[in-house]
């Protein structure tokens, strides 16, 4: 190539904004423009005569180039050229070098910045994976709901029958109390199922607190006592006064699945739930005298839908989700879950939970409820609720607590309606969304405008949208999510009226 032709070629390449490099038939650079050289952090003039290997080595030693991806085996590639390379630069850029054969036998390499394309492709892949994970999470949610809600429902069926055939008032009261606990457990299960879906999506964190393990053990005794008795099993739950650090709801869910599984696969003997201190951890043990699990199944039983095919088992069919849920929750909480089992001799599951300071443990709702009993006598409560059945049930309960209860029907003119009441309220309980698109928080503000002394109020709602919850809390109102637990309601009312500094401690 003559000097004049080379100069003309270099001038033409210099006008191009895209990196271009020309290679001889022998595989050496004859010319390149500044865009190509700058992309690799090299000097264009110094690049003439270099082969592919030397060029890439220089760019790497210069610090511009980190690595390169070679052409796929069998892929199209011009001889003695870059081929179809992807160059990864130290500043995060990804460059694609593609070749075109020239008439005189050489090759022209075109350098293209594919960084944005690759990022878009990566984002698309992540979005696809996230959508697939969400779909799997929804499927797991539905399967888990079908599985776990059957446990308290089974107990309820037995308890309803026991209540119907009870010979004494004391027996009926005991059955009704157990039914109340089973309903509360179902409520917790529904809430935790929703939380599991969010945990799968990485949206929430466990609510870690310090509490006495006895609060969970006593509920397990009530939840599973009737079912164990129906199978002729001895369910023994050994009490413990130690406090643990965990998420109360999720830990109970783990133990509930373990105890339910033990009862399901035990036909004769007993199921034991006990605790043993091990250093700074409390080992919670769920042991049974059931069919046992062969060693080769010890890991597989924690997989979704896995059920050991044992013809000796008379256990009722299950979906094979209980142990999978227990393992996933134990992983989330960081509580190691292990097992020891011998085929034909029973199984023992162990959950290791950090021990907490008993003086830092929260008081359970029923204990608080009893502690504050009787202090509402002589006080007046205004109830703002447009659902007649719920309003009447709520008013009846409040009256049993010693309050006089008043209400208004005209939400459109609340101020005048309150003035016409026989007495002024000491506390207001309001639904958030009342008929006519009226918000309970606005109604409380209107009522307090006409009262000599603003009245404390709490909001109850079935709406759990984050923007609604944040709006209510931003206005300074304590919030309870429906269905409202009576002990929780009583605690919040007590705090509002007598210990407002504690209102943030109830959730």
Structure explained in plain terms:
It is flat and about 105 Å long. Residues 72-82, 310-319 and 363-372 have low confidence and may be disordered. α5 (115-148) runs antiparallel to α7 (169-200), α6 packs antiparallel against α7 (169-200) and α11 (365-371) crosses α16. It contains 16 helices and 20 strands. β12 (337-342) and β13 form a beta hairpin. The chain folds into three domains: 3-113, 2-Layer Sandwich (Beta-Lactamase); 133-360, Histidine kinase-like ATPase, C-terminal domain (Heat Shock Protein 90); 365-505, Rossmann fold (3-Layer(aba) Sandwich), CATH 3.40.50. With 507 residues, the protein is of the alpha+beta class. 43% of the residues lie in helices and 21% in strands. The chain has helices spanning 3-14, 34-40, 44-47, 52-62, 115-148, 150-164, 169-200, 214-230, 248-264, 322-333, 365-371, 388-400, 414-419, 440-450, 466-474, 486-498; strands spanning 19-23, 29-32, 65-69, 85-89, 94-101, 107-113, 209-212, 234-237, 243-246, 270-278, 281-288, 337-342, 346-356, 380-384, 404-407, 427-431, 433-434, 438-439, 457-461, 479-481. Strands 7, 8, 9, 10, 11, 12 and 13 form a seven-stranded mixed sheet that branches. A six-stranded antiparallel sheet has the order 2-1-6-5-4-3, sandwiched between helices. The termini are far apart.
